[in-house]
Design brief:
Shape: elongated
Low-confidence stretches: 1-9
Distance between the termini: 18 Å
Radius of gyration: 18 Å
Structural class: mainly beta
Number of domains: 1
Largest sheet: 7 strands, antiparallel
Mean pLDDT: 88
Number of helices: 3
Number of strands: 11
Length: 197
């Protein structure tokens, strides 16, 4: 479910914008407490500025709370000071019969922290930051995640786009995978990684 209104044109938020509003929370096994996903903001005129849901939605193209929670909950990652980079992988497979071959995958990273601050770039936080941002590691360094990433994380292992085969061919379909480790190149359709609890 995606909720919340981003500031017009993803510019600096208007006066009174509730950048500190908690929209949802997530639990990462490397932290004792649940962490917030705040409304935050993103300023497209200064792409490095911002944090939270607005930055993830407007800069990186991910607007679903479930996707954010699943990636931010990854046990895999690295520490950089008080920040943790949580890593997960989404991918899509092409399957012929029950044999599937990975067509493409993306590492998806969430930068999270329990650090508390009063503000970021002059906009209120008033507590634990939680989710700073979430993005795809794209080979072309594009800001936005590919459109297939969200459905791959929401419905891993679900066959899509089934194609009726000719009498002498095996049925062809596509399926998504999601895991807290890089996805295998080959998998049986019933064994495509699915990290969803």
């Amino acid at each position: 479910m995606s909720v919340g209104v981003a500031p017009a044109h993803s510019a600096p938020p208007p006066k009174g914008y509730k950048t500190d509003k908690v929209l949802t929370t997530f639990k990462n096994p490397n932290f004792k407490q649940s962490l917030p996903v705040r409304q935050g903001f993103w300023d497209h005129l200064k792409p490095g500025r911002g944090f939270g849901y607005d930055k993830v939605r407007n800069k990186h193209g991910i607007s679903d709370y479930t996707v954010i929670r699943r990636v931010a909950s990854s046990p895999r990652g690295v520490w950089q000071g008080t920040d943790r980079t949580a890593s997960a992988w989404a991918g899509h497979y092409k399957c012929v019969g029950s044999k599937c071959t990975l067509q493409e995958q993306r590492e998806v990273r969430a930068i999270i922290t329990a650090a508390s601050v009063n503000d970021i770039d002059g906009w209120p936080v008033k507590g634990s930051i939680g989710l700073k941002t979430l993005y795809c590691v794209n080979p072309n360094n594009a800001f936005k995640c590919p459109s297939w990433v969200t459905p791959a994380i929401l419905r891993p292992g679900t066959p899509v786009n089934a194609r009726k085969a000719a009498s002498n061919e095996a049925e062809s379909t596509e399926a998504s995978g999601f895991a807290y480790a890089p996805l295998p190149e080959k998998a049986n359709i019933d064994a495509i990684p699915n990290a969803v609890p």
